[in-house]
Amino acid sequence: MRLKDKVTIITGAAHGIGKAYARRFADEGAHVVIADIDAAGGEAVATAILEAGGSAWARTTDVRSLADLQGLTQETVKKFGCIDVLLNNAAIYVTQNLWKGAVEDLQIDEWDRVIEVNLKGVFLCSKAVIPIMKQQRSGKIINIASGTFFSGSGNMPHYTTAKGGVVALSRVMARQLGQYGINVNCMTPGSTMSEENISQDVLKRREGSIDKRAFRRVETPADIVGTALFLASSDSDFITGQLLVVEGGGVMH
After folding, report:
1. Where are the domains of the chain?
2. What pTM does this model have?
3. Could you tell me the CATH superfamily of domain 7-189+224-237?
4. Who's near 14: CB < 8 A, 6+ residues apart?
5. Does the annotation count 159 as an active-site position?
């Protein structure tokens, strides 16, 4: 098992790709902490992992609140003894009624709503965990960006700006934290069939990316979790400050 007994916090793990990360990490032996604002959803994922023989604990968490995140980290250390991995996955995307349109039409409150979760949330989660990892002199921080950062596509000015900020923040943290043995990396999933209820509209949207890829098919969570596992495991111990693109060749850089 590649993550045996590694204590891993995954934000936004109650649904979608986050849930897939949680299940795969548990399969690899991790103690998975499901940090999600959806209490019922988080508990359901934790229960499924426990019933499958894995180790999981759900803790209702709002990534917009530093006090809440500090509570999360303190309780995690008390329960498991350390924090080995932080996977900053929580984000507002199209499944949360993400506004799309021109920059000049974007309302300020909508800008703030998305930036607060998708960028500030990554900052706050990292801020809460870093002191613990510094004390341990080890840790892996994995941040989730987006291919829209490369292309400016999608008509989502606030979302794309936030994800670009995540890339920049990751590189700064990698520079600052390397001396403490902490790895900080980013990955960018492409348009992924992560919805639990797949309507015709959802299918059409996801299939819209196929022609842009070298691999001509819809991306699924199973295509992504292996890269996250690599970044969380000892196999990536000498990799930091990097951006790994997991989009089936839709973006090459």
Report:
1. 7-189+224-237
2. 0.93
3. NAD(P)-binding Rossmann-like Domain (3.40.50.720)
4. 34, 36, 38, 41, 42, 44, 45, 58
5. yes
> Which one from 21, 93, 159, 180 is the annotated catalytic residue?
159
Burial class (CB in 10 A: 0-12, 13-18, 19+), 2: middle
* 3-state secondary structure (DSSP) of residue 187: strand
Digit-by-digit pLDDT tens for the chain (253 residues) are: 999 999 999 999 999 999 999 999 999 999 999 999 999 999 999 999 999 999 999 999 999 999 999 999 999 999 999 999 999 999 998 666 889 999 999 999 999 999 999 999 999 999 999 999 999 999 999 999 998 888 888 889 999 999 999 999 999 999 999 999 999 999 998 776 565 666 566 556 565 566 777 777 777 889 999 999 999 999 999 999 999 999 877 777 7
CA torsion 211-213-215-216 (nearest 10°) is -10
